UniProtKB/TrEMBL annotation:
Location within or outside the cell: Cell membrane
Naturally occurring in which organism (per UniProt): Sulfolobus acidocaldarius N8
Name the record gives this protein: Type II secretion system protein GspF domain-containing protein
InterPro entries: ArlJ-like (IPR056569), T2SS_GspF_dom (IPR018076)
Domain Type II secretion system protein GspF: start-end pairs: 134-262, 392-517
Coiled-coil regions listed: none
Pfam families noted in UniProt: T2SSF
Membrane topology: Multi-pass membrane protein
Tagged with keyword Transmembrane: yes
Keywords assigned by UniProt, alphabetized: Cell membrane, Membrane, Transmembrane, Transmembrane helix
Keyword Membrane: yes
Segments crossing the lipid bilayer: 12-36, 56-78, 90-111, 131-152, 248-272, 278-297, 318-336, 356-375, 500-526, 546-565, 577-595
Recorded GO CC terms: plasma membrane
Length: 611
């Protein structure tokens, strides 16, 4: 938004480290500031673009120096040590340092602008989601005969919107302080608004005003067009989420299994590499990096899914507390069972697999169970109103048409069976009315108890319609039709994405079972009594260690895969805590079946030799 003088004064009072101002007046920083100026405005960030660019340039410069150092060390290790000794450890170390040198600058840049990108994405999704209800209220205000200037002043006081509200305030300030017309101010607002649906709607309004077209008819037609655009956006989002789910399965069936295949082959085939060196290098990668790939897919799903500006679940706050507690409990169990050294060094064998797996399972259950419980509790209390919101609006429209007052309609509906769960909200509204609160305030208090966007926006919009005197049966019916069309599209979208939650379940279990079958089969053959010598004999030691690493990685992968399931199927990672619990239990049972029950695709020829 516009940077008002008070923003500049407040920012000037902030102590800025002098090191951030080193490149403030350089030509490079000025060019960067020109690039980031619009992005900062779009993200509602009042920071000075030159200061932001100067800080970013300093960070990138430091990271480039570090990158050059890492790459130089990588070349020195490769040329002076590896080429002389041909030890795989030197090659692995040089490759790791080269990798770090290459990725440090771009990662630093992405992290530096991540906050801006996330804010822009949040604003875009919020504005697009609110555009339908805003467009309905906008058309209702137009039908009420309000002038454009008065219309936007009325909209500025609306509590129905949060993201669109910033744009309305921006338009009003330009009209008030710069003496611009509404059309000019709207065109300026579109330049810094990332919401495409809102921009299309307001551009139709500006075009109708300037061309002399019938404004109300034009905006009503555009309102219907918005519904079609929303349906297309939902279909596109569901198709993209399907692509994310399929890509996740491809990753598990190729890249995930390939890492374990390299480890297993390195344990029995000398030309693949030294098994101890491979375990030293790839062991931490398998345990830490591989499960973290789930977070990358969570981010991909978050950027592609259909979003609504609903309040954030308190389950995340509970998780931030329960996660450290769960990890501490897991470590304490490992210490008590004398398994902590094997876990930290990843040097355990078959006898260590189940104790460490149980400790991890208990710790992660402690971390996941409380937020899963609170999420389910919140959903029961603050959701499930959408299907009744449209019935409520239609009942209001019919009641007004019959000559009843709004208050009497609420009193009759608060105990009606057809209102279902919405009766809780109506009883709350009726309670505030009996306490002497105005109807507009009572409706807003009722809306505050709802988490679902469409139900909440319906009550807020009714309150605004009452304030401007446009509460007519036709206007309420129009609002009901708009919300109903939005709900139909949302149900169709959810019907397409809900089946996708099966793909991470299948991918995680199939990849884990395939890895265990391969490792246990090779180990059974080595234990079958056939004489083995040389590097292949090391497989008797290395493969049990690989199974130990696989078990740890499998549980961590199941835990984070649950978050991906929640994000894909329900639009919220917090919905995945319960799925993470289910997956971890199933994975632990799978580990028990392979390690303790000694399931293998290769029979053991000597019963006295254990798996």
């Amino acid at each position: 938004m516009s940077r008002m003088s008070k923003d500049k004064k407040s920012s000037s009072n902030v102590n800025i480290p002098s090191i951030y101002l080193l490149f403030y007046h350089t030509p490079v920083v000025k060019r960067l500031a020109g690039y980031f100026d619009k992005r900062l405005l779009t993200s509602r960030n009042p920071e000075d673009p030159k200061l932001f660019a100067s800080r970013l340039f300093l960070i990138l410069l430091v990271c480039i120096v570090l990158a050059v150092m890492f790459i130089s060390f990588a070349l020195i290790i490769f040329l002076r040590f590896y080429r002389v000794t041909l030890l795989p450890a030197y090659l692995a170390l040089s490759l790791v340092m080269l990798f770090l040198g290459v990725i440090i600058p771009p990662i630093a840049y992405l992290i530096s602008i991540l906050d801006i990108s996330q804010k822009i994405d949040k604003i875009k999704n919020g504005v697009d989601a609110e555009s339908f209800s805003f467009a309905t209220l906008f058309v209702i205000f137009l039908k009420s005969g309000l002038s454009p200037v008065l219309l936007f002043r009325k909209l500025e006081g609306s509590k129905a919107f949060s993201f669109v509200q910033d744009i309305v305030v921006y338009v009003n300030r330009r009209v008030q302080y710069l003496s611009e017309s509404i059309e000019q101010a709207l065109l300026k607002a579109m330049d810094i608004n990332p919401g495409k649906l809102f921009n299309d709607f307001m551009l139709a309004y500006v075009t109708a005003i300037r061309t002399g077209a019938p404004v109300i008819e034009t905006m009503e037609a555009k309102l219907k067009d918005l519904s079609k655009q929303f349906s297309l956006a939902a279909n596109l989002a569901s198709d993209r989420l399907q692509g994310v789910a399929e890509s996740y399965v491809v990753w598990l069936s190729s890249g995930y299994i390939m890492l374990y295949l390299v480890l297993i082959m390195g344990a029995i085939l000398p030309f693949v590499g030294n098994s101890s060196s491979l375990l030293t290098v790839l062991g931490p990668v398998v345990v830490l990096v591989v499960p973290m790939v789930n977070l990358l897919f969570v981010y991909m799903a978050d950027s592609l899914q259909l979003k609504f500006p609903e309040t954030q679940s308190s389950a995340y706050k509970i998780f931030y507390i329960s996660l450290p507690i769960g990890l501490v409990v897991a470590f304490l169990i490992m210490i008590f069972e004398h398994q902590i050294v094997y876990f930290i060094t990843l040097s355990g064998g078959l006898q260590n697999v189940f104790p460490v797996s149980i400790a991890l399972l208990i710790g992660l259950l402690i971390a996941s169970a409380p937020p899963a419980f609170f999420y389910q509790k919140e959903m029961r209390e603050k959701s499930g109103f959408e299907e009744y919101a449209v019935k409520f609006l239609n009942a209001i429209s019919e009641g007004l048409l019959a000559g009843l007052t709004f208050e009497s309609i609420v009193t009759r509906l608060k105990d009606a069976q057809e209102m279902g769960k919405f009766r809780e909200v109506l009883r709350k509204v009726d309670g505030y009315l009996k306490l002497g609160y105005p109807l507009t305030i009572a409706l807003k208090r009722g809306a505050d108890s709802i988490n679902e966007f469409t139900s909440r926006i319906a009550l807020y919009t009714l309150s605004d319609m009452i304030e401007i005197g446009s509460m007519t049966p036709d206007n309420v019916r129009a609002l009901a039709d708009q919300i109903n069309s939005q709900l139909v599209v949302r149900r169709e979208y959810q019907g397409k994405v809900k089946p996708l939650i099966a793909t991470p379940y299948a991918g995680v279990l199939v990849s884990l079972i395939a890895t265990f079958l391969l490792a246990s089969g090779i180990l059974s053959m080595l234990n079958s009594g056939i004489a083995v010598y040389g590097p292949i004999a090391t497989g008797l030691v290395s493969i049990p260690q690989i199974i130990f690493i696989t078990a740890i990685s499998g549980i961590l992968n199941a835990f984070l895969a649950g978050l991906l399931i929640g994000k894909i199927g329900y639009g919220k990672a917090s919905a995945g805590f319960i799925h993470g619990i289910i997956l971890m239990i199933v994975v632990t049972l799978t580990i028990f079946a392979f390690v303790e029950l000694r399931i293998s695709i290769v029979p053991n020829f000597h019963s006295n030799i254990s798996f």
